[in-house]
Amino acid sequence: MLKQLSVQLWSVREDVEKDFFGILEKLAQIGYTGVEFAGYGNISSKDMKNKLNELNLNAVSSHVGLDNLQRNLDKEIEYVLDIGAKYIVCPWAEIDSVESALVHADIFNKIGERCKAAGLVFAYHNHAHEFKMDRGQYPLEVLFDNTDQEYVKQQPDVYWIAYAGIDVNEYMRKNISRCPTIHLKQIENHETKRNVDAGDGIIDFKYLIDLAPDADFIYEQEEFVGARFDSLEKSFNFIMNK
Asked: Distance between CA atoms of 101 and 63, rounded to whole angstroms?
């Protein structure tokens, strides 16, 4: 059973644009113990850290776009360190061929080395396009085969793994040693491929939690049938009772 669960703020991206701190308060009230950022709403790191402390929320991680990672890495590292997070994660890159995987492997090795030197962990967060077979290989596997595991970790998004038609349990068993942080995101089934509440799909979250008891788990949801925060609370309770 999990003792703590973080939430990716991309799940509430429209809401945080209107009231960042108010949304953090709602998430803390639900019971989430940490957040993964997807932008900071032009809030200073000092003010952000103060609010997190007030709410007893941990800054676990931050999704930072590849352009910012290449152009403003020192600034991004400084902010992440200021708020006390552990991970900087690239949330998307155009890795859809062997060639593009090799190009990004070189980029990620350099970013990851600088992150590690600063005391942070750098990771890449997958979608489904990295599983488009090219020359008999998945570009995502080519990427990780050609990056230094000391510098580049993986943040697997299990929804997108399932979306791509990959067996989630088998994939995670094979790659778990490189996954210090994991995105829990639910898929309804292989036909609809809808993103649904945590308890309404086919991915076995309990299996993943048992497989990686020391990982930092982060919940994300992008599609909602009813009220967004009702779903986030329902999913939180479902996962924490696994």
From this structure: 20
